Automatic annotation (TrEMBL):
Protein name per UniProt: Probable mannosyltransferase involved in N-linked and O-linked glycosylation
Transmembrane segments annotated in the record for this chain: 12-30
Protein family membership: Belongs to the glycosyltransferase 15 family.
Organism phylogeny: Eukaryota, Fungi, Dikarya, Ascomycota, Pezizomycotina
Matches recorded under PANTHER family: ALPHA-1,2 MANNOSYLTRANSFERASE KTR1 (PTHR31121:SF6)
Molecular function via GO: alpha-1,2-mannosyltransferase activity
Lineage top rank: taxon: Eukaryota
Length: 416
């Protein structure tokens, strides 16, 4: 009798257990990121990611959600912080992608970048990755990069009109400039393709058909390093904090490459005062209230930003005005000062963010968090001595002062 009762109880418990398991399995179904355009390369392995939260299913990309339902710990003192990063990160995903401009010959250099970005961040978030090239990507490039990216990869060929001389450019004049810059040994001074690249990154990458599927981008170049764990989702941070543009390194531009960029900018300001926002970062760009450019810019080989902002009338008017002036070819305007001047004048100060956690290297500069505790918490592998932030040729100190931000403890020791 007693044995029969125990068996009954076991059956009962087993039944309850099954119901609970069924409940959680059915609750945690998640539709995943909607499939992208037709030319997506199918993932060779498994699902993009599974939702781990047993209570709240992650909202679909682009759907409204309450941030309080999905706590996102930014540091060890925040609720839900886990020291060891394992498994897919719970919570919503933003409408975002990585983007890389690369040639087929860059495959092993971009492989290194992807490996670090995946290990430090994306293996838990599985964001897509868009690769762009002015030539078709070859099979090796696609195979290697697809095997490394945990999200879906897309490969786009840049349209001819986004990678060529516009018809108003005087070819002879442009050729003379290149010859002269070569003579004066200005870096990339005689390169045509470098100029096409700068113009593409300034005015077209965000309108490329594959990029039209997203609202946010994180730019990654071949051969970069990422030194610290990124626990949280920087895209989500941007969205929830009203940020539009983020950087990690800033410095002074070579004046030889942009002698008349500021004249063109001033002309634009005069023609389009409606695009210049109040509470902008003119103080980052100019020491005399806008008369001259101090050459400070955010280094654009790392960027996290809003594609909608770049597609806005304000930004497009700015790019088109610069493009008509011809400085991408008659000088060697870089996309870094172009993006930076735009962000500095057309975004509010507090829409620009400095990502201290994104410890980063691109030859020859390093951003390594100054704060030792942070480096330990995030398991960083950079040498703090290499940190460029507070050195004389960096503009980051100026950014901190302008925004009333407190510099990290110990920054004075890193100025030399
Ligand atoms: C992502 O953004 C693009 C561009 O705005 C939009 O077309 C697309 O529908 C969005 N996707 C989702 C899932 O919201």
């Amino acid at each position: 009798m007693a044995a029969g009762g125990a068996r009954h109880l076991r059956f009962l418990l087993f039944g309850v257990f099954c119901v609970i398991v069924f409940y959680f399995v059915s609750q945690s179904s998640y539709d995943g990121v909607p499939n992208g355009p037709q030319n997506a390369v199918p993932r060779p392995r498994g699902e993009p990611y599974v939702n781990q939260s047993p209570l709240k299913a992650a909202p679909a990309v682009g759907a409204a959600y309450n941030p309080a339902d999905f706590p996102m710990p930014m540091g060890p003192s925040d609720n839900g912080w886990t020291d060891i990063l394992g498994g897919p990160a719970p919570g919503p995903r933003m409408n975002a992608t990585f983007v890389t401009l690369a040639r087929n010959s860059d495959v092993w250099d971009i492989a290194k970048s992807i490996r670090q970005v995946e290990d430090r961040f994306n293996r838990r978030y599985n964001y897509d990755w868009v690769f762009l090239n002015d030539k078709p990507f070859d099979e090796t490039f696609k195979k290697v990069t697809t095997s490394l990216v945990s999200g879906t990869t897309f490969y786009g060929e840049i349209a001819e009109e986004h990678w060529s001389f516009p018809e108003w450019i005087d070819q002879d004049k442009a050729a003379k400039v290149r010859a002269d810059m070569k003579e004066r040994k200005i870096i990339y001074g005689d390169s045509v393709s470098y100029r096409h690249m700068c113009r593409f990154e300034s005015g077209f990458f965000f309108r490329q058909p594959l990029m039209m599927n997203y609202e946010w981008y994180w730019r990654v170049e071949p051969n970069i390093k990422l030194f610290c764990d990124m626990h949280y989702d920087p895209f989500r941070f941007m969205v929830e904090n009203g940020k539009k543009y983020a950087f990690v390194l800033s410095l002074y531009e070579y004046i030889e490459t942009i002698p008349t960029l500021w004249e063109s900018t001033k002309k634009f300001i005069k023609n389009h005062p409606e695009h210049i926002v109040e509470d902008n970062s003119m103080g980052f760009l100019s020491d005399d209230g806008g008369e001259t450019y101090n050459r400070c810019h955010f280094w654009s080989n790392f960027e996290i930003g809003s594609l909608s902002w770049l597609r806005s009338k304000a930004y497009i008017d700015f790019f088109e005005s610069l493009d008509k002036d011809g400085g991408f070819f008659y000088e060697r305007w870089g996309d870094a000062p172009v993006h930076s001047i735009a962000a500095g004048l057309m975004l509010k100060k507090d829409e620009i963010h400095f990502f201290d956690d994104a410890a980063y290297w691109h030859v020859p500069f390093t951003h390594c968090p100054t704060d030792e505790k942070r480096r330990m918490d995030l398991r960083c592998h950079c040498n703090p001595k290499d940190n460029f932030d507070w050195k004389g040729y960096s503009c980051t100190s100026r950014y901190f002062d302008l925004n009333g931000l407190e510099k990290p403890k110990g920054y004075e020791e890193q100025t030399k």
